[in-house]
Write a structure and sequence with these properties.
By secondary structure, the chain is mainly α. It has one domain: Ribonuclease III domain (Ribonuclease iii, N-terminal Endonuclease Domain, Chain A, Orthogonal Bundle), CATH 1.10.1520.10. Helix content is about 65%, strand content about 0%. Helix 2 crosses helix 3, helix 4 packs across helix 6 and helix 4 packs across helix 7. It is globular.
Length: about 140
């Protein structure tokens, strides 16, 4: 019997209408936010405390603009030139909105992080995406110990 997650690729069958290189960085950030959120939610649910309030609080320590901004700072030395270019595009994109609980620079760096995640996702660089997501998780867990 096949594992139910082996069919997950079929669930996400709608490719973007453009190459990731040509996409608006805010569109990449939009999907990157969702990809990162699902990754973090799966991690939080892998724990034993499944009370909804606990799950939400635990997840928000990872997905806040402040946390993502700090994470991007740690991530920068390991990024390729291409990835740094995508981060810069995401950071410089004018969104017209601001975060409720973050400084402007934190919000822009958070958007840059999400842009990178979205870019790797749509580029189907899943091995590299997993490497960065795993690094993000490990970095955050180390900072809370």
């Amino acid at each position: 019997m096949s594992h139910p997650f082996s069919e997950a690729a079929n669930l996400f069958q709608f490719p973007p209408s453009k190459s990731p290189h040509l996409m608006n960085p805010l569109v990449l950030a939009y999907i990157g936010d969702a990809v990162y959120e699902v990754y973090i939610r799966q991690y939080v649910i892998s724990g034993t405390n499944h009370r909804p309030n606990h799950l939400h609080k635990a997840a928000t320590t990872f997905v806040s603009a402040k946390a993502q901004s700090k994470l991007l700072e740690s991530l920068m030395p390991m990024l390729t030139e291409e990835e740094v270019d995508i981060v810069k595009r995401g950071r410089n994109a004018k969104s017209g909105t601001t975060a409720k609980n973050a400084e402007v620079l934190e919000y822009r760096h958070s958007t840059a992080f999400e842009c990178l995640i979205g870019y790797l996702y749509y580029k189907q660089s899943f091995e590299r995406l997993k490497e960065i997501l795993d690094f993000a998780l490990a970095t955050k867990l180390q900072s809370t110990q």
